[in-house]
Design goal:
By secondary structure, this protein is of the alpha/beta class. It is about 35% helix and about 15% strand. The protein has two domains: about 140 residues, Phosphoglycerate kinase, N-terminal domain (Rossmann fold); about 180 residues, Rossmann fold (3-Layer(aba) Sandwich), CATH 3.40.50.1260.
Length: about 350
């Protein structure tokens, strides 16, 4: 990928900068600005080199949400000159975006001179502003996109061992390929969240009203793999599993202590339903460890930001307290990159 430092002359040029400012908003205010902060080094360099910027983002799934809270928050924290940066409308407002319409992409391209992708977290989507717009303009990667590729590649290039892969959250069908992949790559694969309920049920255990995928998967090979580690106890609420238990936390803690690389995606419990305790405890242990740590997934990043604000920095890299921690801006994009080693939005820049 070509990066923005390779652009020779930016003075007076208009840069179409695709960002992902699809951030949580409550009562008209941004409540987690990690992704916004992650884009600031790129934005500031482009301005410093004389460019004017049109920021392109989506907010919400259907494009009906107003960008006003995001715009207000962006200018408050960035302190950039409002005459140098403007926001395009919510890009998902236009059907051509999600349909990856070439004519729509071409129309977008006519607004600028250069395209920069700083939206790693949506680069797994084959949308017009991600994969087709780059075809019509000189195209480059932003700093955060580069950081994501470089740091996430540690999970499959020059692996430090023992390597512990922790996977939580839900969506079993999406994450099964990852489980299979990392049972080959990692030394230990610990499964938590609703995914653990799926595997426990497949093993023949009663899981009550816990969230499970009803589809029948042929996963005998997965269940019999000696690298697979499942929780041994759970926290139950209203006949449903909401978190992993104390013994499971202890087991995972011993794995963290001896691991040199830890890759973690997704919370270990149903954190919105009082199941965040284990995730918080394990996060504290991970942050204290000497391992190289990569964390991804929106939910777990939100928990981390509340727990350790100093480890939730603008670029995704940690401060002095944990120099070997990388926090990914992606959720689904992180998983897809780890599974396929690239993304449609990254391919489009080559």
């Amino acid at each position: 990928m070509r990066n923005i430092k390779q652009i020779k002359n930016l003075k007076g040029k208009i840069v179409l900068l695709r960002v992902d400012f699809n951030v949580p908003i409550k009562k008209g205010k941004v409540i987690d600005d990690f992704r916004i902060k992650a884009s600031l080094p790129t934005i500031k360099l482009l301005i410093q080199k004389g460019a004017n910027i049109i920021l392109i983002t989506h907010l919400g799934e259907d494009g009906t949400a107003s960008l006003n809270p995001v715009i207000k928050h962006f200018f408050a924290i960035s302190k950039v000159d409002k005459s140098r940066v403007v926001f395009y409308e919510n890009i998902r407002k236009f059907p051509g975006e999600t349909k990856n319409d070439k004519n729509f992409a071409k129309k977008l391209s006519e607004m600028g001179d250069i395209y920069v992708n700083e939206a790693f977290s949506v680069s797994h989507r084959e949308h017009a502003s991600i994969v087709t717009l780059p075809k019509y303009l000189p195209s480059f990667a932003g700093f955060q996109l580069e950081e994501e590729v470089k740091n996430l590649s540690h999970a499959f290039n020059k692996i430090k061992r023992p390597f512990l892969f922790i996977l939580g959250g839900a969506k079993f069908s999406t994450k099964l390929p990852l489980i299979k992949k990392y049972l080959k790559l990692a030394d230990y694969v610990f499964i938590g969240g609703a995914l653990a309920s799926d595997l426990m049920k497949a093993k023949g255990y009663e899981v009550g009203k816990s969230l499970v995928d009803t589809k029948n998967y042929n996963i005998t090979e997965v269940l019999n793999n000696s690298k697979l580690i499942l929780p041994t106890d759970f926290v139950i609420k209203n006949k449903a599993i909401v978190d992993i238990g104390k013994e499971s936390i202890k087991n995972l803690a011993s794995l963290i202590k001896k691991s040199k690389l830890i890759l973690w995606n997704g919370p270990l419990g149903k954190y919105e339903d009082g199941g965040a305790k284990a995730t918080k405890e394990i996060l504290k242990l991970v942050l204290k460890s000497k391992s190289q740590v990569i964390i991804g997934g929106g939910d777990i990043v939100s928990i981390l930001s509340k727990l350790e604000p100093k480890n939730h920095p603008p670029t995704g890299r940690a401060g002095k307290s944990k120099a070997n921690l990388f926090v990914s801006t992606g959720g689904g994009a992180t998983l897809e990159f780890l599974a396929n080693r690239t993304l449609p939005g990254i391919k489009a820049l080559k």
